[in-house]
Amino acid sequence: MAAGKYKKAFLEPLGKDNPVFVQILGICSTLAVTNKLDNTMVMVIGVMFTTALSSWTISLMRKAIPDRIRMMVETLVIATYVIIVDIFLKAYYPEMWKQLGPYVGLIITNCIVMGRIEAFALQNKPLLSLVDGLASGMGYAYVLLIIAFFRELMGTGTLWGYQILGSWWTSWAIMIMPPGGFFMLAIFIWVVREAVFKEEANE
Amino acid sequence: MKTKSFYAKRIHPLVFMALVTIVCIVLTAALHLYTLELVEENEQFFLWRSILDAAAITHDGTPSNVVQIFNEFVTDEGDRYVINTDDGIKRYVFASDGPGLWGTISVMIGFEEDLNTFSGVSIVSQTETPGLGARIEEPWFTAQFAGKQGPFRVVEEGTASSDDEMDGITGATRTSESFRNIMNRLLESDKVGRGQ
Q: Which residues of A43-82 are buried (b: 16+ CB within 10 A; e: fewer)?
């Protein structure tokens, strides 16, 4: 029974309860950082770290937090973890930190982080919340990486900075600008809902 | 539901919040202080590396190598850096900046001894659109100024040939023009003192 609960907490955010294409959370960062794979990778690692650990921390404190100030405590805990990520990158991966600039700080405003705390961590045990937070981060991560793959490939003809498509390819500038993010996200949600969820409904 | 005491209703949340805040601040402040030296070293490394790049002095990109070359060849004269190498090469590097499309673009601009010919340009910081304007950081873009004299006008990407032409970036016209302005403004300024 206990194992089943962990499995459910882990698998649901990856599939039928995915934060991005089902709950439509975290859209702002989906649009902002997905124009290059390397930016996206650092962003999603930061989000995974933050959702997992802040869910765990809040869950540890859940019985002690006075109800009327719980949002403030949540924000503070999230901000602390984000600043830790920011300082860590600044000290040990300065090139990456320079490239990402303000995006790291914006993890604080990622609705997935607070969404999982409010919806899950406040009612569940620490370890289970950690799994749920991590899985939500991963559900967010793979969607962003898929979108970034197509945006970078079509927008600049490169992947991870390496030239993939030859000179015959005309880069679609629109793909690396914010509107390209809207188009790719919409197409992605459409494909997933048509192909995967419709089949499930028919069965 | 029982009515809560004044303490539970008003004081306890305040105390709890203060405690959480203190713990969070101590954690982040400790981490900040612990990495402070490393962060400062990184910043200095980036600055020195861009000065060497603008002066077209070769280095292997590692912090130790950059620091060593910088200490050996470069003197800071306040408004400019003077580079004197063992081979008798003398170059000048000026720090400059100007507004880009989103924020300030800071650059290092290097000149040969005659103060007329560019030896190179490097970007210190910029916040242009990733994949479009941010391509000013790509080597082909910064390398195009070496050996030219300006002042520049922007032409279509990949077509610049003469001394007063610079390649723009397709899809980032505004950034290209801002960059041209930064270059041309330095040429006209007293700092370079062209024609004196």
A: bbebbbbbbbbbbbbbbebbeebbeebbebbbbbbbbbbb
Task: Show the 3-state SS of B14-73.
Answer: HHHHHHHHHHHHHHHHHHHHHHHHHHHHHHHHHHHHHHHHHCCCCCCCCHHHHHHHHHHH
Q: A25 CA to chain B: closest CA distance, Å?
A: 23
Which residue stretches of chain A are H helix?
A: 2-11, 27-33, 37-61, 70-92, 94-100, 111-116, 126-156, 173-176, 178-192, 198-202
Task: Report chain B residues touching chain A, CB-CB < 8 A.
Answer: 12-13, 16-17, 20-21, 24, 27-28, 31-32, 35, 38-39, 42-43, 45-46, 125, 127, 129-132, 170-171
pLDDT in tens, A112-149: 898 899 999 999 999 999 999 999 999 999 999 999 99
Q: What is the rounded CA–CA span in Å between residue A40 and residue A184?
A: 15
- Domain count across chain B: 1
The complex's ipTM works out to 0.77
Contact A155 B131 (CB under 8 A): yes
pLDDT at residue B48 in the model: 92
Element (H or E) spanning B107, and its range?
Answer: strand B104-111
CB contact under 8 A, B31 and A173: no
Q: Which of B133, B138, B122 is nearest to B175 (CA)?
A: B133
Only one residue has tokens 């041209």, namely: B180
Closest among B196, B111, B129 to A156, alpha carbons compared: B129
Q: How far apart are CA A63 and CA A127, in angstroms?
A: 15
Closest residue, chain A, to B38 (C-alpha): A91
CB contact under 8 A, B38 and A77: no
| DSSP state for residue B97 in the 8-state scheme | E
Residues of chain B with pLDDT under 50: 195-196
Residue A2 has pLDDT above 90, yes or no: no
Q: A39 vs B130: CB contact, 8 Å cut-off?
A: yes
- Given a contact cutoff of 8 angstroms between Cβ atoms, the answer to whether B12 and B4 are in contact is no
Assess if residue B35 is contained within a domain.
no
pTM of the full predicted structure?
0.80
The token duo for B77 is 């004269």
d(CA B163, CA B145) in angstroms, rounded, equals 9
For residue B81, what are the domain limits?
51-188
Give the whole-angstrom CA distance, residue B4 versus residue A63: 17
